[in-house]
Write a structure and sequence with these properties.
The protein is an all-beta fold. The protein has strands spanning 4-9, 14-19, 27-33, 44-50, 53-58, 63-68, 76-82. The chain has a domain at 4-82. It has no helices and seven strands. A four-stranded antiparallel beta sheet has the order 4-5-6-7, with no helix packed on it. It has a three-stranded antiparallel beta sheet with strand order 1-2-3, with no helix packed on it. Strand 2 (14-19) and strand 3 form a beta hairpin. It starts with a strand and ends in a 40-residue tail after the last strand.
């Protein structure tokens, strides 16, 4: 698969996918656009790609919008969370950081001693 870049095009309310196999001649591959429903990409500012999904901060829609980019030529809206103020606090969102949280193991009900997997140290 070629290397792709996902670009937020604020003036076009769009997430655009570019093939950068040849950096001297980037090629348009696909895009998804639209402020408000159904794509919630009004004034996108930032995108992070994790796996086959693009997570887009759309300031104009006060939204974190998730786009499936499995097929870069035809990105597809998956879902979003939106709303300035309580309960989502996404007003004019313009940045994104992500992390992976692994919950601690659930302790057994009996016995009172928990065995954790060993970690090799070198």
């Amino acid at each position: 698969m070629p290397p792709y870049i996902a670009v937020c095009a604020s003036a076009d309310n769009s997430l655009t996918i570019i093939d950068v196999t040849n950096p001297a001649a980037p090629v348009f591959v696909g895009n998804i656009a639209g402020a408000g429903a159904p794509n919630f990409l009004n004034n996108p500012w930032f995108v992070a790609i994790i796996g086959n999904y693009a997570y887009v901060c759309a300031a104009g829609d006060d939204s974190l919008t998730i786009i499936d980019v499995t097929n870069p030529a035809a990105p597809v809206f998956v879902g979003n969370i939106a709303g300035a103020g309580a309960p989502n606090f996404l007003g004019a969102v313009i940045g994104l950081s992500y992390f992976f949280f692994t919950p601690p193991p659930i302790p057994p009900s009996s016995p009172s001693v928990m065995t954790l997997p060993a970690t090799e140290v070198r």
